[in-house]
Amino acid sequence: MSHTTAIGTLPFDHPFKAGFSDDGFSGREEGFSTIPRTNRLRKAFLDGKFEINSERALLVTEAYKANESLPIALKRGKSLRHVLENISIYIYEDELVAGCHGAPNKYAAIFPEFSYNWVMDEMENFPFEERVFDNYEITEETKNDLRSIADYWKGRTIDERIVSNLSFDEAKGSNMGIGMYLLNLYQYGGIGHYVFNYKKLLEIGYGGLKQEILDRLAEIDHAAPDASEQRSTLQGFLETVEGAMTYIARHAEAYEEKAAKETDARLKEEYTQIAKNLRQVTAGPATNFWEAAQLVNISTMITYIESNGHSISYGRYDDYMYPYYKASLEKGEFTKEFMQEIVESHFIKMGVPSKLRDKMTAMANTGRGFGGESLTIGGVDRDGNDITNDLTFMCLDASAHTRMMVPWTCVRMSEKTPEELKVKTVSVIKAGFGHPKVFNDQACVPAQMKAGRTLEDAREYNVVGCVEPTIAGREFAWADAAYFNIARVLEVALNDGQCYHCGPHCPRHSICAGVGKKLGLSTGSLETFKNIDEVKASFEKQLEYFTTQMVAGISIMEHAHRELGATPYASVFFDNCIVTAKDMSAGGVEFNHTGPQGSGLATTADGLSAIDQIVFKQGKYTGKEMLDAVKANWEGHDKLYALVNSSKIKHYGNDDDYADEFGAYVFNAYCDNIENKKNTRGGTYKPGVYGVSANVAFGLISGASIDGRKIGEPISDNMGPVHTAVGSHDIEGPTAIANSVTKMDHSRAGNGTLLNWKFNHTNVSGQAGTNNLVNLIDTYFDKKGMHSQFNIMSTETMKKAQANPEDYKDMLVRVAGYSAYFVELSTPLQNDLISRTELSFE
């Protein structure tokens, strides 16, 4: 099958458009698309300011006060309806799809029902506008608005419910304690990491969903023990659907009024047509491509208004949108060129929501976007046939032309993926803005099947958030449930349950002192271990202890969201919730999982490898000498420090079976302690082995590590090899890395794996560079690697951007799982990107 590329394709033999400066960033003004509208919308976004908006917070507080006695699903449904009926409507020139996220473009709305103490504390004591990164402007009027509702929310938030229910041991290991694991994503925000059944919404519209709810209400057995709960839940669903219909109708009316007053003929025609699109999808299905894009956009924006859950993703865009593209083209409704314009306008609209995060989260996961809006293209259908179509290529062009932080474009690849799509994907990757990331059907489909899916269902996976495979409208995976620091488990395992640095060298000394030096179990010390098996036994006991505490903490979070944070609007878009009359937070979704991810695999593996070689096999140093070195942050132990960071020691990532076996051991040990544990919604746990950018946060709060890392340095990057301040532990090139990483069964990690690659753009230039990248992806995927993403960016360019941020304001980079503007990243994150190995095919 032949696929034509969309208009405006960039000359991808060079990573940037001709006419720009050598580094591709300085002096750029015209934009990347041949569509003027796209460039204007992108410039408007970049020129806009980030600010905090209080309107949603005030409206939701009014609604809660008026409905305090109602069951939670109905209270939440009525609250969302009140917000949707009263919140401001925003119209922006040039936008082809309407609807905002409860605030103006780029502004952050506030969600006091989830967490509020930190908002007030930081507003008064750590001003948002004075942050070094992720700063927001805030007016005095907005501050007064937020102060006016603070008393009401004391003791009512999900955050407070979680904290009050955590035991000492559960809190001790969390972000509130030593930071062995981080629970803050769902502690401070709403539930997320899911994909609607967009296909169903487009086919039946809100009117069809409303009728399904009414029909189910009529079926309730009023004598059943749970009849009252079912009824109130369904009534909450109904409130949100009717509220959404009102919200869309309000937009239609606003556009009609705007069109009536407009004197510019082009704008008048656009406003009139957008109003007609909105009138159609207020209750009805989409009948053409433009209406479909409109319905997808506004339905998703309402989710952001309901909850500030992370990573509400867009699913298989080229699958559910393609029938409307094809029909509109065949009927002559729109040209392909105009539908490309719609796609690019939609892509930019996906990128305008902004989310305020607490300062700790902002340090580790810098970026003011709402976060995690993955959009999946490519792959196979239920029957195993490749779905690649024109829209697949148009989405890649849209990503290259818009170059926004989101959507996070994800390309699924299988044995049936056309070579043309592989080349196109690599060409966009070579443009050097961090998109797209690539996923392997040969690993993701088996991972879904291990979680209980049929082969046909597994083939329909989408990507949510950074890396997680899930099924649209049928699975709520509670992905990104927590970040777990595997590397620090080894620390306490080598030191009889204590951290190394209970003293001036400890980054979390005040916390450690508060909980006591004995952080874990008493399992012995490297001073007395006689062989590597004893080290492993200690590690396994500590790992079981701390993962158990983490799972207990996650269960408390799940209960808190069920009790206080139901999401009736989002639940409507999951096939089973209306049938079961249960909110998604209460287990109403067909497939329920929970997915925490382990971070620091290579740090742990190289630590074990170094101990086995230096202490037990070679006898060059004693276990006590190695412990003394890390307790001293390697100060005064220069020879040992140089040795563990040298090629004289076998390290993971070099296709060396000895070292790589430790990587596989750590991978399997973590999965053993996570997979198939029961969650609170009738499902099971799925492990992930990645940390996104949590490796930077963990490095800041952990002691030195035995692999040769000093305090403050990040632990290892996701599935990748170690890189410390004095050099990278991988020295054999990209093929060796691919071989090492695929010595593990990635399908065990149903919540995902992640491997970052970094290349200088000159090293992948031209046809040879394209061929090399295609071959690397093919090699990695043939060996059943699950997922990869690329930074085509030289270390030198990153250093220039760090030194002269004003010249690189819109330089997008791939962080880990997500892309962000480099100059807006925290310094530790920038340094982590700079220090990653710059690979070469030479």
Strand pairing plus helix content: what structural class? Answer: alpha/beta
Average pLDDT for all residues:
92
DSSP, total strands: 20
Radius of gyration: 26 Å
Distance between the termini: 34 Å
Written account of the structure:
- Strands 1, 10, 11, 12, 13 and 14 form a 6-stranded mixed beta sheet that branches. The chain has a 6-stranded mixed beta sheet with strand order 4-5-6-7-18-17.
- The protein is built from 35 helices and 20 strands.
- The protein is globular, with a radius of gyration of 26 Å.
- Helix 3 (72-86) runs parallel beside helix 11 (227-261).
- With 842 residues, it is α/β, with parallel strands linked by helices.
- Helix content is 48%, strand content 9%.
Features:
single chain; 842 residues; alpha/beta; 6-stranded mixed sheet; 35 helices; 20 strands; 48% helix; globular; disordered N terminus
Q: What secondary-structure arrangement, pairings included, does this model have?
A:
Blueprint: H1 36-47, H2 55-66, H3 72-86, H4 117-125, H5 140-148, H6 150-153, H7 158-165, H8 168-172, E1 181-182, H9 184-188, E2 194-195, H10 198-219, H11 227-261, H12 265-283, H13 289-306, E3 312-313, E4 315-316, H14 317-320, H15 322-331, H16 336-350, H17 359-364, E5 374-378, H18 390-402, E6 408-413, H19 419-429, E7 437-440, H20 441-450, H21 455-458, E8 461-464, E9 468-471, E10 475-476, E11 479-485, H22 486-493, H23 509-515, H24 532-564, H25 568-571, H26 575-580, E12 591-599, H27 601-617, H28 623-631, H29 638-644, H30 657-674, E13 684-685, E14 688-689, H31 694-701, E15 723-724, E16 727-728, H32 734-741, E17 755-759, H33 766-782, E18 787-792, H34 795-803, E19 812-814, E20 819-821, H35 827-835
Parallel strand pairs: 2-3, 4-5, 5-6, 6-7, 10-12, 11-12, 12-13, 12-14, 17-18
Antiparallel strand pairs: 1-11, 7-18, 8-9, 15-16, 19-20
